[in-house]
Write a structure and sequence with these properties.
InterPro entries: Apc4-like_WD40_dom, Quinoprotein_ADH-like_sf, WD40/YVTN_repeat-like_dom_sf, WD40_rpt
Keywords: WD repeat
Number of strands: 29
Radius of gyration: 18 Å
Organism: Rhododendron griersonianum
Largest sheet: 5 strands, mixed
Shape: globular
Protein name: Anaphase-promoting complex subunit 4-like WD40 domain-containing protein
Strand order of the largest sheet: 1-2-4-5-6
Pfam families: ANAPC4_WD40, WD40
């Protein structure tokens, strides 16, 4: 997982699972275990914010405060949510989800309001990453009082929510679930306004398109037999619900063998023309959105690529690998 504030000078990286881009210079790396590091990857940028963060449990999600480059949210496997101040180099708030939902799978800050939403899950009984997830809990938190405000309604015993995404003004929240559903919430009312079955099985990642007339989903499809199951990317129209505008089968890079231990992710560049996806291979694909070309592949790591992100304004992207390496690449 990579986390990146919108303007910023940092990347936050969870090398084994995920990371985010924060500007162009500083990176935070968190392991699949219990610690994370923020460091400078550009010699021109001061290293004063470099730090190691000990969380005491596996780090599962990261998110920068959209309106600041100072606060980093960290979600863990024991129900913890920590707010780290990069200037003070300390945890300024330590929250806990409801005890029944210990796995904090995703965190998203509103781009406008001082709130964030946590997607937490109870524990399932399977062996793969998705099968280990149980039921979902979506909680809205106030970032001024650091208290829970409300729980978004999902119905009785809802499948786990794996990925969240706000639209540009924070009025709509999209949530993707392990049963293949996309849920859309009106944040002012705190209610679900629509939803549709986007995949046959679990969705790994969800993103609004750059013009916000569409939404991208990465998930599992196919029902007949194990051999026919594949990972697909779909771009869904938000003006004509259920209509697919563009799609790609990415099973060459995403498959059950390499998704058993982590969740696949994707990232759009600033123009919404190139889609970068994690990979069970040493290279990750970059798809041309709505194009007929297969696109290109990233430079190789020595193990699977488990997290990706684009710079918010520049033609730079980040890849993090299970070999514990991180690469920043410029693309024209």
């Amino acid at each position: 997982m990579i986390s990146n504030p919108r303007g910023g000078a940092f990347w936050t990286i969870c090398v084994a699972y995920h990371f985010q881009f924060r500007d162009c210079c500083n990176v935070m790396i968190s392991s699949v275990y219990v610690d994370g590091r923020i460091w400078t990857c550009d010699s021109a940028t001061p290293a004063s914010r470099n730090a190691t963060i000990y969380c005491g449990a596996e780090i599962m999600s990261l998110e920068w405060d959209c309106k600041s480059d100072r606060l980093l949210l960290i979600g863990t496997a024991d129900g913890g949510i920590k707010a780290w101040n990069v200037d003070a180099k300390r945890v300024v708030c330590d929250l806990n989800t409801i005890e029944a939902f210990p796995s904090v799978l995703d965190l998203k800050c509103s781009p406008v309001e001082p709130i964030f939403v946590s997607a937490a899950s109870s524990r399932g009984h399977g062996t793969s990453y998705m099968d280990k997830l149980g039921f979902a809990n979506l909680t809205v938190w106030n970032m001024k009082t650091w208290k829970a405000m409300t729980v978004l309604p999902l119905g009785e015993d809802p499948p786990a929510i794996t990925s969240l995404c706000f639209n540009h003004n924070g009025k709509i929240l999209a949530a993707a679930a392990t049963d293949g559903m996309i849920h859309m919430f009106d944040m002012s009312a705190g209610l679900q306004i629509t939803g549709w079955p986007a995949h046959d099985s679990a969705i790994s990642s969800i993103l609004f398109g750059p013009d916000e007339t569409s939404i991208f989903s990465l998930g599992i499809d196919g029902k007949a037999s194990y051999s026919s199951i594949f990972f697909g990317i779909f771009e869904w129209s938000l003006q004509n619900q259920g209509k697919v505008l563009w799609s790609r089968n990415c099973s060459r890079f995403c498959n059950h063998e390499n998704s058993g231990h982590c969740r696949h992710e994707m990232a759009l560049d600033a123009d919404g023309r190139r889609l970068l996806v994690t990979s069970g291979s040493v290279r990750a694909p970059i798809y041309q959105v709505r194009g007929h070309m297969n696109g290109v592949k990233t430079l190789p790591h020595s193990a699977a690529i488990t997290t990706v992100d684009w710079h918010p304004t520049l033609p730079l992207f980040l890849t993090g690998s299970a070999d514990h390496s991180v690469r920043v690449t410029s693309i024209s």
